Amino acid sequence: RAKEQGKNKYQIYHSGMNLQSYRTFILQNDLRKAAEREELILHYQPRIDAATGKVIGTEALIRWNHPSWGQLLPSEFIPLAEETGQIAGIGEWVLRKACEQNKLWQNEGLPLTRIAVNFSPLQFLQKDLIRIINQILTETGVEPEVLEIEITESAILQNENIITKMLHEIKGMGITISLDDFGSGGTSLSTLKNIPADIVKIDKIFIDDLSVNPSQGTAFITSIVSLAHSLKMSVVAEGIESEEQLNLLKKLGVQGMQGFLFSPPVPPAELDSLLNRGLPEQFTYKSKIEKEV
Ligand code: C2E
Ligand code: MG
Ligand code: MG
Ligand code: MG
After folding, report:
1. Which backbone phi and psi does 58 adopt, to 5 degrees?
2. 280 C-alpha to center of ligand 3: Å?
3. Whose CA is nearest to atom 30 of ligand 1?
4. What separation in Å is there between the alpha carbon of 100 and the centre of ligand 1?
5. What pLDDT, on a 0 to 100 scale, did the predictor assign at position 190?
6. SS3 of 237, please?
7. Which superkingdom does the taxonomy of this entry point to (predicted)?
């Protein structure tokens, strides 16, 4: 009957899907059209330099303005895009859009900041990835030194040899590489030794731990910082929500700070003033912290 009505997808729903798989099914279909309908957007979260309190970079984070379900977060649709192979196209769109936005900020005369883009492990399996990155940098006029590619520690493990090789090529282009969600991905020290990362981004669970269990939290951060520094990598903390966490992280030698304490990810227009003027008064914490230390 549904076939007669030309509504195959609802037929599939009625024949026994639960609500979750119904939603997944609809989203997978809708995602195919999302890019051309301009429903995908990027928000940006600032990264702050611990020493100066200035914005040193932004991280592009994708959102999907779904016509019936409102704004969806990447956790709901990136895995679907990975399953259906759409991640290659979406990843390319994200990279181009983020570079274009960074160039817009440059053209507005704002201080030069780095642009960090999250990559799915599947993107590293694209044979033409290097060519695509080169092409996007050329087309948008963004210098490779301005671009940072974030990959999670656990993602690398899915295809360690190919991804590590690709990361070496990317690093060779002058692009910065950061290891996202560091500490929770189960990388062995020998793997870490082979990954040409410039930055480790400490996973939010360790930042949360600073509040829940300060002595254990401090021990973990201390060992991550010392490991990173001995491998000549710098350290960024993500998910900072309180001044207490910030103060501790600064004391422990963390250089880059991201979190709701400074700003959630926001549409690009909302970041203009932050990039321009630096942080609002309450976050001119440099002198405050230095007095405490
Ligand atoms: P991520 O790269 O580790 O990004 C950090 C996530 O933590 C973001 O969630 C961000 O909104 C959130 N966050 C930042 N500061 C705080 C804080 O202080 N408190 C709390 N509670 N959360 C904070 P979001 O935007 O939902 O992204 C989730 C993940 O989705 C990202 O984790 C990244 O792995 C992935 N992702 C986002 N954009 C893209 C993309 O364009 N491509 C790919 N492949 N993955 C993406
Ligand atoms: Mg990230
Ligand atoms: Mg992360
Ligand atoms: Mg994450």
Report:
1. -135, 155
2. 24
3. 74
4. 20
5. 76
6. strand
7. Bacteria
The rounded mean pLDDT for the chain is: 89
Question: Does pTM top 0.80 for this prediction?
Answer: yes
Residue 289 neighbours by CB under 8 Å, 6+ apart: 246, 247, 250
Q: Give residue-wise pLDDT tens across range 245-289.
A: 999 999 999 999 999 999 999 999 999 878 876 655 545 444 343
Tell me the average pLDDT across 84-94. 96
- 49: Cα within 13 Å, side-chain hemisphere: 11
pLDDT in tens, 59-83: 999 999 999 999 999 999 999 999 9
Verify whether ligand 1 is closer than 6 Å to residue 148 (CB atom).
no
Structure-token match 């995908």, residue found: 40
From residue 207, alpha-carbon distances to 117, 168, 220, 262 in Å are 22, 29, 10, 15
The values of phi and psi at residue 168, to 5°, are -65, -40
